[in-house]
Amino acid sequence: MDSDYGVPRELSEVQKKRTLYEPEVPPCLQGTTVRVEYGDAAIAADPAGAHVISQAFPHTYGQPLAHFLRKTAVVPDAKVISEHPAVRVGIVFCGRQSPGGHNVVWGLYEAIKAHNKNSKLIGFLGGSDGLLAQKTLEITDEVLSSYKNQGGYDMLGRTKDQIRTTEQVNGAMASCQALKLDALVIIGGVTSNTDAAQLAETFAEAKCATKVVGVPVTLNGDLKNQFVETTVGFDTICKVNSQLISNMCTDALSAEKYYYFIRLMGRKASHVALECALQSHPNMVILGEEVAASKLTIFDITKQICDAVQARAEKDKNHGVILIPEGLVESIPELYALLQEIHGLHGKGVSVENISSQLSPWASALFEFLPPFIRKQLLLHPESDDSAQLSQIETEKLLAQLVETEMNRRLKEGTYKGKKFNAICHFFGYQARGALPSKFDCDYAYVLGHVCYHIIAAGLNGYMATVTNLKSPVNKWRCGAAPISSMMTVKRWSRGPSATQIGKPAVHMASIDLKGKAYELLRQSSSSFLLEDIYRNPGPLQYEGPGADSKPISLCVEDQDYMGRIKKLQEYLEKVKNIVKPGCSQDVLKAALSAMSSVTETLNIMTSSSNGQTQL
């Protein structure tokens, strides 16, 4: 055991109180019998990529959905597992730390021990590096005691490295075989779960006995699809950031002379910025998805902010708060193109000192226009997934500087009558990653840990633990599992009128749905947010009393519960089978044929419309 990991923490009185909180488990996970109902084979949401995915994952694509049932459920075809031999399960933190991750470990440990006290849960120390090096720590009650309902990943440590190369995948398989693991649970976001799917496929092909299970844990909230409503950590990050934003709003309102430009972490998608805006009501939020959809340039965005400042000044308001997602820089067309050129030169081995001299004429002109601090940050080497180091690029300072220059110009020309523009910039990122998790994240993570055991008991490989109907109380949550390969998409890039480049199948980041209810709610309020100071402070995280049971607004306004609807559809189809049998009346048969014909025609039109689309 590495002495830096698994060491009992020194806890404050608040932390001690938090360790005593016992998350609730839904009825479908209670007891020592696992009841699982299998649905139809799960397919990729994008039919155009299904063939590519099925070829890349022949052993794990097309597996059925799994629904875990409560004791009282009457489902004749359900598989009932009452015998639970001792198992050895490995668990590893991959990707950036996210509040609630420790509770996944706790929930899995409790489930494993409840079904067979001789089972072992083995944590890998230092993330994927520990997995490859077989550095382990057996999880015990003592190890868990000071990490229950606590933030961070420090019980085991983590890594953001990928398990992608043949050498890494074979190394992971060798570790699992050497440790005689029945299952490996990977905790992480889109990249980590893509890696989990690849491990599961490779293990199946090699007839390795270890099953691989993924868990959706990422503070960015960008692992969203038809099976995953939200991720562990997103609620906490948004609540912590929203309180900080609200504090800035109150300060701005008190001083009446500052504009706060606040950049929020969340990678390329703007889910964190959207949720924080809904919770704290800042004057303005610039979403990367809006910018990309409208192809707004850096000058367009600057003008939007300047016009907003001027409109507020006409109401004698010379202060405000503006939210900016960290991924905005990759959504602005000209900056993204500049980054692509820079990264291409990095890939060719060009030194940082020589990159600027080798840029194309237009890119060189843009690069020279930008302030020196931004130039230096854009030249940073890209991340392992080829994206920019978004946390290091101070887009908020760039925008604040451009807005200040423009407002000074307007002031000098007399077109702006307000006070001198003053900006203060902040980046809310690392401050919240180790936060004590919210009650919702504690519950969600703990339940996902239990679901992982049910997946393992059912002998499933290449699945992600899922919980749906999350906006309802815990006792109404629906627990199941979906093949990770069914969550994958295949990106296509246009390379001219006749050439298209096809990427590898992966679980890709989900962008904000600009037709979704959460975005619609923001747009309905944007005018009042802009001109009226209706700031809202959600306050600190609570485990009891007002606000304790609050959940992300963007989760609650959407009508998701995909797994529940799949289950309901199966029930309806079963009823149709029971009603329309040989011997039924002509009228019943005609009605059924007419209805089914209409439904299938509509569904064919809906599914075919998504074929052949090229992602630019």
Topology:
Elements: H1 13-19, E1 34-41, H2 47-56, E2 64-68, E3 79-81, E4 88-93, H3 101-115, E5 120-124, H4 128-133, E6 136-138, H5 141-144, H6 166-178, E7 183-188, H7 190-205, E8 211-216, H8 234-255, E9 259-264, H9 271-280, E10 284-285, H10 288-294, H11 298-313, E11 320-325, H12 333-347, H13 352-355, H14 361-369, H15 372-378, H16 395-413, E12 423-428, H17 430-433, H18 439-457, E13 463-468, E14 478-483, E15 492-494, E16 500-502, H19 517-531, H20 553-557, H21 562-579, H22 586-608
Parallel strand pairs: 4-5, 4-7, 7-8, 8-13, 9-11, 9-12, 10-11
Antiparallel strand pairs: 1-2, 1-3, 2-14, 5-6, 13-14, 15-16
- Provide the structure class: alpha/beta
Strand order of the largest sheet: 3-1-2-14-13-8-7-4-5-6
Whole-number mean pLDDT: 89
The N- and C-terminal alpha carbons lie at a distance of: 48 Å
Largest beta sheet, briefly? 10 strands, mixed
The count of β-strands is 16
- The percentage of residues in β strands lies in 5-15%
Give the overall shape: globular
CA radius of gyration is 26 Å
State the helicity in percent bands. 40-55%
Total DSSP helices: 22
List segments where confidence is low: pLDDT < 50 over at least 5 consecutive residues.
Answer: 494-500, 611-616
Subunit structure: Tetramer of two alpha (regulatory) and two beta (catalytic) chains.
Protein name: Pyrophosphate--fructose 6-phosphate 1-phosphotransferase subunit alpha
GO biological process, one term: photosynthesis
InterPro entries: PfpB_PPi_PFK, Phosphofructokinase_dom, PKF_sf
